[in-house]
Amino acid sequence: MHRRLVSATLLIVTAIVVASSFSERPSVAHGAQGTNLTPLVPVTVDVDVNIKFQPLHGVGAALTSSSAYLLMKQLTPQQRQPILRRLFGGSSSTEGINGDSDDEAFGGLTMVRLPMGASDFNVIERYSYDDLPANVTEDWDMKYFSIDKDLEFIVPAIQEILRMQPHLKFIAAPWSAPGWMKTSGVLYGGALRDDDPRIISSYATYFLKFIDAYAAHGVHVTYLSLQNEPQYSTGSYPTMTVTPSQEVALAEAIMALLLTSSSSPSSRRVTPKIVIYDHNWNNATYPMDVLGASPTISSPTSLVAGTAFHCYEGGVSNQTVVHDFMPWKEIMFTECTGGAWSPNATSSFLWDVSTLTIGAVRNWATVVLKWNVVLNPSGGPKLDGGCGDCRGVVTVDTGNTTTTTTTMEGRGDGTLETTNDNAEVVSPFVVTWNEDFYALAHLGMATGRWNRAAPGEPGNTMCRGHSSSTAPGLTSLLVTPCNNTGGWSGERSAWSNFFHALLLANSNAYALNVSVLIAAAPPASSCTAHLALPSSSVATLRWPNDGPPEAIRFWLSEPSAPGNNSYWKRQTSVVRC
Q1: CATH number for 261
Q2: At what angle do helices 77-88 and 154-164 cross, to 10 degrees?
Q3: CA distance 201 to 140
Q4: CATH code of the domain containing 27
Q5: What would the pLDDT profile of 47-80 be if each residue is shown by its tens digit?
Q6: pLDDT band at 424, cuts 50/70/90?
């Protein structure tokens, strides 16, 4: 949580995040001791890189109108680009947490969620792509369709990110159909009309026009979600309810258009796949009703890829319920946000990693996305309505403060410490890398660099592997190459350059002495690695695919000291088998 105390000369930033500047610390290996490492409780984690589960397509966040406006209209290129580079990285294999640098954490984000038109995070106005002039009541042929309002700052923001990361993937979702297609007649609230069969066919055309208009600007949408939160309607911002039968009809209509060659312009490099539901964990029946309604949808070769979930109600295990109903369909996790309601960042960070970064993937997610990628300290900029106290993955304070200072506790002389491990000062604003960022970064480090393929090229190179432990309060996730042999046409020329990665989250109030039993793929040999995992900490271990894991790279996120939740630190060291 980001809190401010402003006086004439002092800004104190106390966001509870992993440090943005890191100090080297001694290697943590078997038998290591520390102030919060005694006593060490012994636990075992079994890892087998020969067992593969689902591919991992992406990790990322949403580029809302609010995020894009802040980046493109309130920051200069010199201020903006370091933020984007740290979030998304570049193609260099030596760049940050997505490569091999030890001095700074990079997000390794590979996917962006795009609202189609207005959401609850718009700045100037709320709109659809087919808003009608006065005295016009319908537009079945989409004569008034236009993405011009996106071209002011949303599409330019995407294009700037693509110049840094050309293999970025996109999932797009509407919060509302155009008002004339709804029972309410406006963007706010209401339901998708079912009183005219032309509604579905015209709305399908709306989706096609969107993906082709974006493709014409070099933005190739990978996934189309039929509706954000189709069971929710409110009069305070654009929303719309859509029934399962309407999602079935809309999916079939969009597929028919996508599979018609005449509807595929030369600018479209990708045929998007369709995602259903895109709502909370508490309802597994809705997506199963859609998936099971038609052979056109249920077929393994269908363009309907699978189901997306949000975190705000229910439990993550419902992802497995839907997966088990139709195992060949994808499960995606597409939205969760932190905010003022979760002020304890230690708990927020551990919950994010255990439930989303690890938990969603262990429950079959191929994608893990957070909500707004960037917001200001007030949870904006935005119009009224919707979430008023949400937190971005990154917080950018565009105020006039030029320094960040933190009082030294226990010093007694009232002097100030001019380095703050969680706030990066880029005059005249402050960038805070929140706990949400570091929760994503651990997964981004494990998957990002090797899941970057150009649109239409093979790119699902990393899969969930097998890891298990019966220790309470310890969760784990193995990320491993989907195939141990053969080449790949992407950023790396051979599978031998790939890595395995193991994420460990210790939610306990005590430290663990972890033995990792690694069953390796031939010709590599198996081994046992030992490490001390502090209380309330997250670690990512990484070792090469083509040899014995004798030296394992080790990244650790932990509270800076017992009882001090003001910032986080990361250490890079080596664990040996």
Answers
A1: 3.20.20.80
A2: 60
A3: 8
A4: 2.60.40.1180
A5: 998 899 999 999 999 999 999 999 999 999 999 9
A6: low
